[in-house]
Amino acid sequence: xxxxxxxxxxxxxxxxQKRAVTVLVLAQVYMxxxxxxxxxxxxxxxxxxxxxxxxxxxxxxxxxxxxxxEDVDSIVTEWVLIRQQAYKVSLAGSLFFTGLxxxxxxxxxxSDKIGRRPVYLTGxxxxxxxxxxxxxxxxxxxxxxxxxxxxxMNGGIGLVCFVLAQEYVGKSYWAVTGTLTSMTFAxxxxxxxxxxxxxxxxxxxxxxxxxxxxxxxxxSVTLPESPRWLYSQGQTARAEEVLRFIxxxxxxxATNLVLQRVGAAKPGSPARNRGGVLQLAVHPVLRxxxxxxxxxxxxxxxxxxxxxxxxxxxxxSRFVNVAMYGLVELPAYPLCIxxxxxxxxxxxxxxxxxLCLAGSACLCTTLIxxxxxxxxxxTSLALLGKLMVSAAFNIAxxxxxxxxxxxxxxxxxxxxxxxxxxxGILAPFVPSMKQRFNRSGRTTSEGKTQNSVDLQDVGLG
Length: 461
Prior knowledge:
- This protein is mainly α and 461 residues long.
- 70% of the residues lie in helices and 1% in strands.
- Strands 1-2 form a two-stranded antiparallel sheet.
- Helix 6 (116-135) runs antiparallel to helix 7.
- The chain is globular, with a radius of gyration of 23 Å.
- The two termini are 45 Å apart.
């Protein structure tokens, strides 16, 4: 029997698979905390600077004359990252997303070659180590370097974690597991906002947020290798062993489970070289498909993170804003599950519609004054844009995984994620564009995402 028939035999989404997927899905909470860390630990409070005689003061003199009027403990107050040094906050966020980009490029193809499980466990282990380095950083330089390393690991394990959650279950449940993964990431953002409210010192917050990774690592050690990856690599015996392991824990009888034999590819053989990033460029259909998906992922990332990372800049409590920008995503995912499984909608049409709605909502923020008092406010439109782009982002993950065969699925996801991270690298600087937009007459805080939305709309045209 082939691999799909085998999953029907052992159970497409049995009790054991539910437990395994739960571990992988809940790991998204940890990844979300790491992704959003800079939003709270990089918060810039109000401050006053004593007047000084003479010329402009250097940074050391500025540290002696600045007074922060809010009781806030952040990297800004500890290392006085204001004025000429203010860019370092956005830089730390960009370094994290730069690490994500490199992690996608390196870990995606690597997991296609040596397996999902070893890459996932190694990446998670080192992300926890580097996360503690962030909390204990003695200087900004060490802090920034640790964020780069955390991003490197986060990008790799996030991709492999998503693929593992898909490959543990039957194909008919891929949309469900993909949606659950995205929903849990959104819940993780909200939980991080709540955690930040109760844990104010930035070093303590970084430590507590990182400690959940230890728990998920210990739970993940018991997970088996992906049977789909083993089968695609010609390791049929090991794939049968994993499938029987799953069947026993699902309470099913799979003693007669025998997979169709696939010859193990030798190094240098055509079968061995059929996978990898190069195949995405050589095959004309895969090449066009990859180019379109790369641009969609870039637009989704730039708008998604541009709005989310600017949550602390909007009026009101920064903790409530962070939580709200996370929770607003949740209604999108049931909609995704409903529409993408309907024959009249499907993946492609649903994703295109959500992208159009996201772009329209964000464009409308430029037409409404910030303090108009209208029920249709800038914030509500920005939240609607976040809701729609989250739905499109979720479908992009599921749709992309389905468009690539198993042997190059991680490579395809890795290349698309690489394009996505380019948008993420730019996103931390989007909130800093607020003053520029104010000078040009665009006074809305959410209007800062206009450039990203313009790019998105061009892609939709």
